[in-house]
Structure formats: C-alpha cells, structure tokens
Predict the 3D structure of the following.
Amino acid sequence: MSWVGVWLERPSTLRRAALASLVANIGIVCTGGLVRLTGSGLGCPTWPRCTDDSYVTTREMGYHGIIEFGNRTLTGVLSVLALVAIAAAWRQRARSKAALRAAVWVLAGIAAQGVLGGITVRLALNPWSVAVHFLASIALIALVFVFWDRTRAEPPRWSAPRAMRTAGVVITVVSAATLVLGTIVTGSGPHSGDTRATRTGFDPQAMSQLHGDAVFVLVGLSIAMWFGLRALGAPLRVTRAAAILVIVELAQGVVGFVQYFTGLPWPVVILHMLGACLVWTATLNLMARVAAKPAQSGADSAEGDRDHSLASTA
C-alpha cells in the first residue's frame, strides 16, 4: 500500500480534513465580505467567465477584478479539501458510513454555492440574491460541521432530557433567524458591493434594531440554557459548549455595537461576519451535545445510565 493510502486511512487525516474544510468555509465567508466591502462585487462582471473574453481577471479591471477573481478561486481550494475528505472517508468507510455521506454532501454543497455565487453576479448583486448566497454559506457550514462532528472520537453522549433538547432546537432556530435578519440589515445598508447594486429599501436603523432585539433574545436563551444544564448536572463538555456559545455571542455583540456606532468601517464589518460564523458554529456544537435522546428499553436505559456516569466522571 502506498504512503498516500496509509495516510488516508488514519483517523486523524479524516478529522483534520473535516476541520480544514470547516475553517476554509468560514474563511470564504470573510473573503466574500471583503469583496462586497471593497466595492468589488462586480469586479468580474459576469460568470462563469470573469469577462466575456476571459476566465481570469485582466489588468484593465484593476484591484476590484483581482479581489473578486481571488475570491472565486478559493472555491477551488474548498473543492480540493472536500475531495481529500471524501477520499479519506471512503478509505475509512468501514468505521463510519455516515462520515462518508456527509463528506459527499459537503462537496455537493460547495458546487451549489458556486452556482449561487454566479447567479448573484448575473443579477448584479441584487440584495436578496446576496442574502441567499450568504445564507447558503451558513447552510454549508452546518453541513461541514455535521461532517466534522461525525469524525469526532468522543465519550458516550449524554442523554439530554426532552426540555434541554427542545431548548437546543429553539436556540438553533433563533440563531438562524438572527442571521437572516443580519442579511436584511446588510441589504439595507451602504455596503452594496458595487455602485450599480440596488438596496432593499428598508430603513437600516429599524432593521438594525430588529436584528439587535433578536440578538438579545438569543443571548438570554443561551444563558438560561447554561444555567439549566448546570442545574441538571450535565457533563462538563455539554455545559462548556453552552458557555462557549454565550462568550462568542457577547463578543459578537460588542463588535456589532462598535461597527454600528463607528460608521461601519470595513475591517470591523469583516470581524462581525467572522463572529456570525463562529456564533453559528458554537450553536451547532451546543445542539450536537444535547441532541441525544434518552434510551427507552430497560437494557438500553441501563446502558445510558452507565454512559452518563462515565461521562460525568470524565
């Protein structure tokens, strides 16, 4: 067997490939923000070519073309990482077929997101298409997180009570709704990506207030979740997931206030976009930690109690 085959069969290779894919998919959201914030959204005015006559940027297109074309090429990096992950998952399919399925879905999601990006350019950065493009990235991050989570060699799952599982779902829904409202704020604000791009027509201040209200609800629910998990004696890894979510949310809130009261400087806006991805990832991590259902049968219940005991002492 070649060294490549040996390398692909290492569990650490699959784990690292999944993590690299997660980091890269978060990173491309930030570089996409750079495209919009520098007014380079139509630096390549068509798709799949950069111009009618060239697949790459030209000197006449200046730095706008370089920024937009550079962001497009990052899709190739995501695809390579996804292919490596699929190869590793295939070689290790006997251990986890679920990881292989997730890896294939990630590659399909990257391809679909590339097409959505092209449609966004073709629509001259219509704010609603830009919003869909961003939310598709958020959905793709969720796919990659599921893939990464399935490569995790973790201790037995905690059998969360129904109330905690329901709370996890509510927090995830509110987190997703906050992201949707954030795209409406963006579509109403000054950073359109190009002077030719239209805006939603909504009042940016009103949309920002609505988005801020959703953030306060999300933070409140997350803090309540942390207290509830501690009261139930949940394993440390579960309460830590809730604490991480609260910390990331609070940091993101500070960045949001700074960008609002300083006139939306682009470095702070990019930091806010990174924070949005981190809040979403932390939300998914919490959901994954509380998603397990309690066992039903007597034998399964005994096994679940033993798992809980082991997890509590871990």
Remarks:
- Confidence is low (pLDDT under 50) at residues 296-314.
- DSSP finds ten helices and no strands in the chain.
